[in-house]
Every structure is written in C-alpha cells, then in structure tokens.
Amino acid sequence: MLFHSGSEPQAVPVKAERLHFSEPLELAGGGSFLGYELVYESYGRLNAERSNAILICHALNASHHVAGLNEEGELGWWDNMVGPGKPIDTERFFVIGVNNLGSCFGSTGPMSINPSTGKPWGPDFPVLTVEDWVHAQARLADRLGIVRFAAVMGGSLGGMQALAWSLLYPQRLAHCICIASTAKLSAQNIAFNEVARRAIITDPEFHGGRFYEAGVLPRRGLQVARMIGHITYLSDDVMAERFGRLLRGREAGEAYRYTYDIEFEIESYLRYQGEKFAGYFDANTYLIITRALDYFDPARAFGGDLSKALAQARCRFLVASFTTDWRFSPECSREIVQALLACDLEVSYAEINAPHGHDAFLLDNPQYHQLLRAYAQRMASNLGLAA
Amino acid sequence: MLFHSGSEPQAVPVKAERLHFSEPLELAGGGSFLGYELVYESYGRLNAERSNAILICHALNASHHVAGLNEEGELGWWDNMVGPGKPIDTERFFVIGVNNLGSCFGSTGPMSINPSTGKPWGPDFPVLTVEDWVHAQARLADRLGIVRFAAVMGGSLGGMQALAWSLLYPQRLAHCICIASTAKLSAQNIAFNEVARRAIITDPEFHGGRFYEAGVLPRRGLQVARMIGHITYLSDDVMAERFGRLLRGREAGEAYRYTYDIEFEIESYLRYQGEKFAGYFDANTYLIITRALDYFDPARAFGGDLSKALAQARCRFLVASFTTDWRFSPECSREIVQALLACDLEVSYAEINAPHGHDAFLLDNPQYHQLLRAYAQRMASNLGLAA
Fold first, then answer.
1. Do A194 and B30 touch (CB under 8 A)?
2. Distance of residue B369 Cα from the nearest chain A Cα, in angstroms
3. What's the confidence (pLDDT) of residue B7?
4. A113: helix, coil or strand?
C-alpha cells in the first residue's frame, strides 16, 4: 500500500477476481455463447442486507480496474470517483467493476482461445450488444449474491449499460446513474466509428482479424482509430487552450519547419495517444465495442419512441451531461430526461459546466464530484444504509 | 453545347488552357521552384480596360474547372455560382479558375516528372503554402495581362487564398470575397488533417510517397482520409436528416444484421465517397494541400495580431459564413471581420442560415446566392462596368 504524506486519500491496493460461467448466454445477434469468464474487481464490503452494491460499467477503452492500485501498480480509471471518502464512498458502498465480454483486459474476448478450433477467436467472436453485456453482468451479480443493486452507473458507453439495466432488469437496481451518455448514436457518431473501423479493417496487418496467428498487429489502423476517437473526446475549446497552434519543440516566433512530420504540438500528442493505444488494445475488441455503441437504441423496438422504451424502468435516475461534450452532447441527455419525465419516473438532471468535452466524465471537476457525492448520500439514506 | 428545354441556364462548354512559367518561384519553405505549368480555365470576356477579371481560388479537392462543361463532360465545381446570368455573371465578368501548383488536376504537382531525376516528384515535391500559390497565381495574372482583379474569391481554402491576395498584392484586387474560411486553423482542424495524413503515410502502399514507381496507390489511406474529411464538411444536423440511423437496404422495423460490414446508410455513403476519392486524388497532393491549410496564419508574423496583418490590405471585403459550419465556424469569419474593422477597412459580412455545414459554400442556397449576386452587382457599379 502506498502512503501519501499529504491529505490526499491513499490509493487502495486491489486484486482482480475471475469467474467462469458455463450456462450459455443468449445473444442479441443470434445464437448463444458457451463458457466464458468475466474478470472483476470490488471495493468496500457488501453489507449483511446485500443492499449497498454499486455496479460500474466501463466505456470503450477501460476495464474492470475502476479504482485503487492493481498489481501492475496502475490506478483505476475512475479512482477519483470511487474509493474511501470519495464521491462513491467505498466505506459505505460495495462497488464492483466488471470487464465486459469481448474486451481485451481479461474477460473472454477475441484474443481468447476458441475451444472449437484451439486458436484465438479473432473475427469469429460474436458481435455483441450493450444488452448482451448487461445480461452477462446480471449473472455476475447472481454469483455474487446481489439481487438488487443500490445503483448501476457509468459514463459514455457505461451510461448506456446503466440505462439498459433499468430496462432489462427493472427490479434489480434502485438507481441508474447515466453520465455523458445517449440513448442512441447519431449519424455523425456512427460515421466516426465507421472510419475508425475502416482504418483497422483495411490495415493489411489486420489479416481479416486473424492477425494473432500471423504474429503481427494492425498497429497503423489502431493508431488512426484512436486518433479519430481522441479528437471526439476533447472539446474544441480545450484543444485550443492546451495545444492551440503551438509548435513542437519551438518557440512562438520561430519559423515553421515545412514538414509532414510533427510540426504542431497537437500532432505529437495525438500520435503519442495513438501509439500507446495500439500497444495495448485489441483490434477485434475495438470493432466489437464500437459496433455495440452503434447498435444501442432501446427506442428502436418501440417505433423510435424513447419514452415507451423507458416506461419499463422502475428505478430512480441521475442523468448528467457536460456543456462542451460534442460526442454525446447535453441534448442527448436531455432527450433521456424528457422521456423519463414522460413516464413519470423520478429523475435528477445536471448539465455540468466543464471545458473538457466528453472526457470530462473521467475528470475531477468539483461541481461534478459534488453532484455525485450528494446523490450517493441521498441514495444511502433512501436505502437506509448506515452513515 | 447542351441545350435545356426549361428556363435553366445552359451549361457552357469550356476548354482548359496551360501556361509554362520558367522564372523560378521563391517558396516560403525555402528554395525556389523552377519551371512549372499552371492549368486554368476562363469564362466570359476580359473587357478593353481589363477591369472585369475575377480570380476564383479552389479548395482541397477542386480544380481550375470552376464552371461550364469540360471536355470530359463534367460540370464545374462552382457552376451554380459562375456563368451567364448566375451570381458571378460571366456576361459581365471575366472569370478565371486556376489549378494550384502541387495539385493533381493538371498543374505541375507530385505526379509530374522531376526533370532532375526523370521520375515523378512524389515526396520530393516541395511543401507549399497558401502564399506560394498566390505568388504563382499573380504570375498567371501577369501573363494574362491582368494588373488588378475586380475580385479574388474563394470558399474554405480558396477563401484563405483570397485573403492572402489582399495582403501580398494589396494593389492588385479591388475586392476580396472570403467564404466559409478562417484566418488560421484551430488545433482541432489540424488534428483532423493530421489523422488523415497519418492514414495515408502509414498505408504500406504509400511507399514513402514513391508509390507511382511501385505501380500501386495508397487507396486505403486515401479512403480513410476522405471519410474523415467528409464528416467535417457536413453538419451533424444534415447528417441526421439525410442518414440518421437508417439501415442500408432495410426497412425501419427490420432486424439488424449484426455485422462489421455496411449496416447503416451513413457507412455506405462514406465508403462510397472514400472509394471515389481514392480513385482520382493523388496522395502526395493531399499532404501538400492539408499542410498548406495547417500553415496558413497571416497573423503569425505579427505576433498573432490579425488586425496588424490585415492592415496591409487595401481592398473591400465580403466575408460570409454558414451557421452550421463546424469546420470553419461563423466565429472564424467574425474574427476576420473584427480585425478588418479594426483597420478601418470596408467589409460586408453575412452569416447565412444553412443546414449543410461547411459544404454549404458549394450549394445553391437562395439567401447565399442572392448575397453574392447583389455584391457582384455593387462591384460592377463601383468599377464602372457596363450592365
């Protein structure tokens, strides 16, 4: 355990757990998936009533490692939100982070061995949906003995899973916390996903998804995909403020180098992000997750009427958006809120003033964290949890 | 010549001309370019006073073929704007469209033979700037005997060239018409260009820019580059309206196919655009033009003070932007207008209500065309041109 000298909360060491599921999982795309493993972490203690559990669902490039310090010495992706004394206080709540099926961070995914061939699944791994993930998460809850979550929460794609929980298992959550998310992708959102997928699929080293066997990686495609994604995570404003037209390694007045290599700071930053990502993320997983994003549209089965879809829900909702998020803009969250209100469901909504764009949901914004802290306290008192 | 039965103006046949320039062209990036050709078209007649010439500068993927019907039977990219009886009326004005140096549509560019090697220039073609193009265009004007243009005009990158004309040759234009443009790219703009370039440069078939010799084309990179560009040309709204979440070849209620191949209409559209572009556009030209966009920043030599830069201008200005353009938003145009006003220069500004995003500058919007028609008429009377 690491100790800090200041008042900063100490990072809690955490160890991932792994569970095997042998019952077939029926998939939205047809067929069923047989025999898979889910990796998860948990923080805090489940109370005797089993009423203090919060499930945290991850977004595109995250994992079960939500909080604390794992064995590799890495801090969880939402460690500023979840932990002792933090907005989601693990001294009060039992928090679970789960790695979704199809991911590349430990749960069964395209890199895993397909028992029927003895080779990695690769492109034969089934196309998955947000709903498939939720069903798999519900089984994890069963195994952990959690009948009803105090909350299911997530940001971005994680928020979609929280929303899907409220519709697929209305009795199994008291609260749905849906942050920087949307009830469906726009044509522009799908377009960005499609370009990213094309970059990967057309990389000659993708080998139709069987690159593991070829002993190569479609690095170039993954880099481009990540660079595109990254642009959409940041606001125009924050890019202007952090990078503007700064030249890499040059003073303001110095001459251009007149090159197609790195000239501007923003180029250096994006390339770095792209290369880092290509080093740890699986290309087939990228396809699976972006496609799950594209397909999410709970209103679709109700002729496009979102309030009809949300009428299945029974929990209370917290919906939050960020003013400069242009990937899933406040308008997307307002659409959810209006549909919930049309169903007479209880919903709190906050539009948080933040310059950081979509990424804001991961950052330590005082207004945002205060909102979550207050909401979690209200949840605790609603649920009769000890202070 | 094609004749239409209705009241629609007939398409005018046009033939491209070619001029050779032997005097070295000094380049912003250092060195000079020796011996090049520029291809151009012209429409209407130069009057005896040589006072009715308008130069039209092209944007990223366009050419000298601005208006009329060329020998390949293709209509010019701004044929709705330029022609007999059109907003830029060729019965009154003598209009010139020029293909820029470094392009792939006829003027000397990376596909041309480098006389010192006997092979295509490829990556050895110099990095160019908007200012380099303007200097080359000024020589074309010299050869055509045009001392002073009635106007230099363009949209997007073409607008940057018009702006640069007003600063580099202040005495050689009476009017600068700058549409859907900007005085400098933002970090986000540069970021999109950089991703597009990375897609091209990392395509194994790019061969460091020497793909001509390898007998291949970096089609995959060009496709991805074009798809990214295309997303930024369209507004979120127009994408939603034209494509939304429509499935390709399926009715609204039909099931998803659960595939990484084309599922949504927007995917089909973008792939088609990408493939078409890869079939006709040169990859090295794409690098040259996007880099010229990145580098354009006339305020840079004045410590970032745009009004100091624009103080060199002597002409009148028309600046126009489109409400839903998020590539070069109205704010970019307003910045130009405010800097011009700070210099006591005469400027008309219009923010045109159009749903189409950046592409609006190419489209036949009545409010927009009426504005250009009225401005051109005012120019004509200012310049004492016969009606």
1. no
2. 28
3. 45
4. strand
> What are the percentages of helix, strand and coil residues in chain B, rounded to 5?
40, 15, 45
Burial class (CB in 10 A: 0-12, 13-18, 19+), A84: middle
**In this predicted structure, what is the pLDDT of residue A6?**
42
Helix (H, G, I), strand (E, B) or coil at A47: coil
Chain A nearest C-alpha distance from B15 (Å): 35
> pLDDT digits over B1-60, tens only?
333 344 455 688 999 999 999 999 999 999 999 999 999 999 999 999 999 999 999 999
Residue A11: the pLDDT is: 81
Q: What is the pLDDT of residue A165?
A: 98
Burial A255-267, CB ≥16 within 10 A → b, else e: ebebebebbbbbb
Residue B66 and residue B96: Cα distance in Å, rounded? 8
Q: Please state the ipTM of this predicted complex.
A: 0.95
Question: Across the interface, do A227 and B195 touch by the CB < 8 Å criterion?
Answer: yes
* A366 Cβ contact partners less than 8 Å away, ≥ 6 residues apart: none
Query: B32-33 and B25-26 as β-strands: parallel, antiparallel, unpaired?
Result: antiparallel
The answer to whether the CB atoms of B264 and A294 lie below 8 A apart is yes
Question: Is A299's Cβ below 8 Å from some Cβ in B?
Answer: no
Assess contact for A172 and A142: CB atoms under 8 A: no
Q: What is the pLDDT of residue B387?
A: 63
- d(Cα B219, Cα A79) in Å, to the nearest integer? 43
Answer for the pair A231, B191: CB distance below 8 angstroms, yes or no. yes
- Rounded CA-CA distance B186/A257 in Å is 19
Which residues from chain A sit within 8 angstroms of residue B294, using beta carbons?
263-264
**Judged by CB atoms within 8 Å, which residues 83-102 of B form the interface with A?**
none
pLDDT digits over A79-135, tens only?
999 999 999 999 999 999 999 999 999 999 999 999 999 999 999 999 999 999 999
Q: Report the C-alpha gap between B160 and B156 in whole angstroms.
A: 7
Write the single-letter amino acid at A24. P
Residue with tokens 């996007």: B290
Q: A190, A246, A300, A325: which to substitute to probe chain B, counting the most B Cβ within 10 Å?
A: A190
Q: Is A199 on the interface with B (CB under 8 A)?
A: yes
The pLDDT, as a whole number, for residue A387 is: 63
Q: Strands, E, within chain B: which ranges? A: 17-21, 25-26, 32-33, 36-43, 53-57, 82-83, 88-89, 94-98, 113-114, 119-120, 149-155, 173-179, 316-322, 347-352
Kindly give the residue spans of alpha helices, DSSP state H, lying in B243-324: 265-280, 283-295, 306-310
CB B155 within 8 A of CB B48: no
- B348 close to B318: Cβ distance less than 8 angstroms: yes
Confidence tier at B206 by pLDDT (50, 70, 90): very high
- How large is the average pLDDT for residues A180-189? 98
CB–CB contact B267 A184 (8 Å): no
Shortest CB distance from A231 goes to which of B195, B220, B297? Answer: B195
Contacts of A272 (CB under 8 A, 6+ apart): none
User: Rounded CA gap, A372 and B27, in Å?
Assistant: 57
Q: At what angle do helices B265-280 and A187-201 cross, to 10 degrees?
A: 50
Nearest CA in chain A to B124: A259
Average pLDDT value over all residues in chain B:
95
Cα B175 to Cα B167: distance, rounded to the nearest angstrom: 12
Q: Phi then psi for A58, rounded to 5 degrees?
A: -95, 160
Q: What pLDDT is stored for residue A1 in this prediction? A: 32
